[in-house]
């Protein structure tokens, strides 16, 4: 149970960060936080239900998260080149 | 077998129309072979008929009309005449038409014409006769207008077509009237039932039917097409104007004679119209200088003689003259063609001394001329004598007119002979090739000898010709020749200044009949059509324009409906959509975090609702 509570708190922190931070790198970090909260959940349930597929899923998510971080940083780098800043509120060209 | 007689030339026509351009110089062999086949078949049929039988062939066709052919004595002889003379003319044409750009086409048309004419001869009911009759008209149109590059030939073929058509309207009305009153158009039925009709009705029917013969056989006043038809190639003139087309009218009257017999008034009219035509045509022939025109008027006058025979209640005599005339007139035409071929002109002033240059043509033309004049023992004498005898008995006034016509005939024929054959040779004429002279010789044999046996002798009109008839016809013919010799051969009397005579001009201009037709019918037609044109413009065009204007107004009103109501609805829907879009676009902030917020809120809401 405790572990589920930790994972919930971790996810909530990640979501809050992703919704409120202006800094794109911080948002990326928040997303990593949420992913890891999910991983924690998977591992916990794998252990309680004695089913290894949860752990395999976690390994895949870690790999995907690493790729996502690489792509996200590349996007942020291009964002910086374009606007001279990594504030997401400034990158709001796709509006009405 | 009988069907094949007209079918063979018809097939030759089809073959030559489609493949003539490939055959070129060999085209005549097809048409001549076909016609020779018809001739042999006709000969076989005729031999059977001469033994006293009648051949009848019939096939069901339309409900009331059978496709029926009948060969009796008259039609057997006509078959032989048409195929025989046609054959001679086709052979002659090989020489005459040599080098013509539409050589094969010419023989195709000749075949079509022969096929149609054989159909006329064989037909055993009026509708079939009428169909082939019109086909003959078509064939003549094509042949007369064969050299259609010449405006005069193009005009002549139209004239022939329209004038014969004018007569055919009457013919057709006659057939309709007969059909309405008897309910049958088959010849045998007509003949067996016609006596039940009242005399005025029969008179009306026969007069209407005779209109067709007036057109085809070139009787007054519809004869004007025939001289113009000389624009066609000379073999065509020989074919159309000697043995076939113009004979169709006479033949038709002879074939329907049992019907005509019931209307004495019609017969009298036919007789006097015939002799009137004959006299008039003789007079005009005297003034002509074109040898083909002389032949043309001569044909008209001889047809008049045949009609006189019909009117004098002697169809056998008329048919006999038709046969002899078919031979000697074809001969004269082909002789004239031979001369024209050599001299390259139709005008007599360009000819002279041809007796020395063209001995065969001279000899054969002389035989034809003597036959036409009616000098014994040439064929024309016997047939003409029979006509005169019949006229003497039945139409005395016409008889004396006919005697005058005999004199004029002899005069104009020998006027031509004396002008072109004796004397000094003009230019360098040469005798025609053998392919042209052989038909001339064959025809000359018939023109000379055909009179010795009358195929229709023993008919019920057999009456001994009185000496007066014989003497007056022979005397008048001799007198005519003698007068022609005095004026043109010996030149005893000078004819200078005669051409300015008022009467001469009147006759030389063909009694101004062409002008009469132009002014009376041409102008009437023009005036009527102009009146109709005005009517068209004012009334018909007015109505059309009115309808157009009404349509325009409707369209105008309609357009308002379209613009304001139909388009309005569509625009309204579009405006509403645009309004919603305008309101909702505000949600599109461009801020990623807002979207993410919406997603989270949405998920939470979904989870709450799912609960």
Walk me through this protein's architecture.
The complex is a heterodimer of chains A (96) and B (611). Chain A has 96 residues and is an all-alpha fold. Chain A has one domain: Helix Hairpins, CATH 1.10.287. Chain A has helices at residues 2-20, 24-49, 53-83. Chain B has 611 residues and is mostly helical. Among the domains of chain B are: 264-454 and 463-495, no CATH class; 516-601. In chain B, strands 1-2 form a two-stranded antiparallel sheet. In chain B, helix 14 (291-311) runs antiparallel to helix 15 and helix 17 (359-373) packs parallel to helix 20 (434-449). The model of chain B has no long low-confidence stretch (mean pLDDT 83). Chain A binds chain B through residues 15, 18-20, 27, 88-89, 91-96, and chain B through 585-586, 588-593, 596-597, 600.
What's the short story on this structure?
The complex is a heterodimer of chains A (96) and B (611). Chain A is mainly α.
Number of domains of chain A: 1
| Radius of gyration of chain A using CA atoms only | 16 Å
What is the quaternary state of this protein?
heterodimer
Radius of gyration of chain B: 36 Å
If you average the pLDDT of chain A, what whole number results? 90
Q: How large is the count of helical segments of chain A?
A: 3
List the secondary-structure elements of chain B in sequence, H or E: HHEEHHHHHHHHHHHHHHHHHHHHHH
DSSP helix count of chain B? 24
Q: Quickly name the level 1 CATH class of chain A.
A: Mainly Alpha
Helix content of chain B: over 70%
Organism (chain B): candidate division WOR-1 bacterium RIFCSPHIGHO2_01_FULL_53_15
Keywords (chain B): Membrane, Transmembrane, Transmembrane helix
Pfam families (chain B): Proton_antipo_M, Proton_antipo_N
Subcellular location (chain B): Endomembrane system; Membrane
